[in-house]
């Protein structure tokens, strides 16, 4: 994110899509069709994924559905969905994987000053807010993550200013891992402040592994680094052995 400038959802989507395209070095595009250098598995109704080792260019499978059980299996397996309108569901397991160890969070000095001088309230949503709708993700994905939220596993962090929602992010928490999905900003530094407040609380709650999926300069500024997929999967296995902090989250909770 450029310092001092608000980023639209479309810009963040474009950056993430570009990162996924960079990982797919042996593909010309994410279009499913002939000429692919690596195998792509087509999912059906069965609740299963192929081994992630087959995702040599990051893209593992296509199709399936977004029922909660499949999404949770995907996260536990080191896989996440990412696709655009008009595409089938695309399932990714990139190598390398962008990861932030919560205890290694780096906050730029300029942002610390901003957080002191012009605080933006960052809070976790414990319920849907009437009359508000977002366009972070496609309608099917919105429904899927609302269901995970209902189950106490998906969480959003919101940045408010003057009674107006100006930024935020959302993701899924399992064990000692948090899987970041998307973020947006309508005001300078809003999503940054929400992200920092979230990671600070993840440290306090002993949730140490933050999955950032793919490289972006925005996340690298906060200390996120690329890990080989094998290392990420080993760390994920340990994190998933820990109990899950489910249910509504409130920033400020210490227990």
Structure annotation, total helices: 7
**Physical arrangement of strands within the biggest beta sheet:** 6-7-8-9-10-5-11
CATH homology superfamily of the largest domain: Leucyl/phenylalanyl-tRNA-protein transferase, C-terminal domain
SSE order = HEEHEEEHEHEEEHEHEH
CATH class wording of the largest domain: Alpha Beta
- Structural domain count: 2
Over all CA atoms, what is the radius of gyration? 18 Å
Structural class: alpha+beta
Mean pLDDT across every amino acid position: 81
| Morphology | globular
Q: Indicate the CATH topology of the largest domain.
A: Aminopeptidase
Euclidean distance between termini CA atoms: 32 Å
Helix content: 25-40%
Give start-end ranges of low-pLDDT stretches: 1-9, 23-36, 118-136
CATH architectural type of the largest domain: 3-Layer(aba) Sandwich
* Biggest beta sheet attributes: 7 strands, mixed
Total strand segments? 11
Describe this structure in words.
β9, α5 and β10 form a beta-alpha-beta unit. It contains 7 helices and 11 strands. The model is unreliable at 1-9, 23-36 and 118-136 (pLDDT under 50). The protein has helices at residues 9-23, 68-76, 109-117, 139-150, 190-204, 217-220, 229-240; strands at residues 41-43, 59-63, 80-81, 90-92, 97-101, 121-124, 154-161, 164-174, 177-185, 209-213, 225-227. It has a 7-stranded mixed beta sheet, sandwiched between helices. The chain is of the alpha+beta class and 255 residues long. The protein folds into 2 domains: 9-94, 2-Layer Sandwich (Alpha-Beta Plaits), CATH 3.30.70; 98-240, Leucyl/phenylalanyl-tRNA-protein transferase, C-terminal domain (Aminopeptidase), CATH 3.40.630.70.
């Amino acid at each position: 994110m450029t310092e001092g400038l608000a980023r639209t959802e479309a810009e963040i989507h474009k950056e993430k899509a570009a990162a996924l395209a960079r990982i797919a070095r042996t593909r010309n595009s994410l279009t499913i069709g002939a000429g692919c250098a690596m195998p792509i598995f087509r999912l059906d109704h069965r609740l299963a994924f192929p081994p992630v080792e087959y995702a040599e260019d990051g893209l593992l499978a296509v199709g399936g559905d977004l029922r909660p059980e499949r999404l949770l299996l995907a996260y536990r397996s080191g896989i996440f969905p990412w696709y655009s309108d008009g595409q089938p569901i695309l399932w990714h397991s990139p190598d390398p994987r962008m990861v932030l160890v919560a205890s290694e969070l780096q906050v730029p000095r300029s942002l610390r000053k901003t957080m002191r001088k012009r605080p933006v309230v960052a809070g976790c949503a414990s319920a849907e807010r009437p009359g508000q709708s977002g366009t972070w993700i496609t309608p099917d994905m919105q429904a899927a993550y609302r269901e995970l939220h209902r189950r106490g596993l998906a969480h959003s962090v919101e940045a408010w200013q003057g009674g107006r929602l100006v930024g935020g992010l959302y993701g899924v928490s399992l064990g000692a891992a948090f899987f970041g999905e998307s973020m947006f900003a309508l005001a300078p530094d809003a999503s940054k402040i929400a992200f920092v407040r979230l990671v600070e609380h993840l440290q306090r709650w002993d949730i140490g592994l933050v999955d950032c999926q793919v490289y972006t300069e925005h996340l690298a500024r906060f200390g996120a680094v690329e890990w080989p997929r094998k290392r990420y999967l080993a760390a994920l296995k340990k994190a998933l052995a820990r109990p899950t902090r489910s249910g509504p989250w409130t920033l400020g909770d210490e227990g």
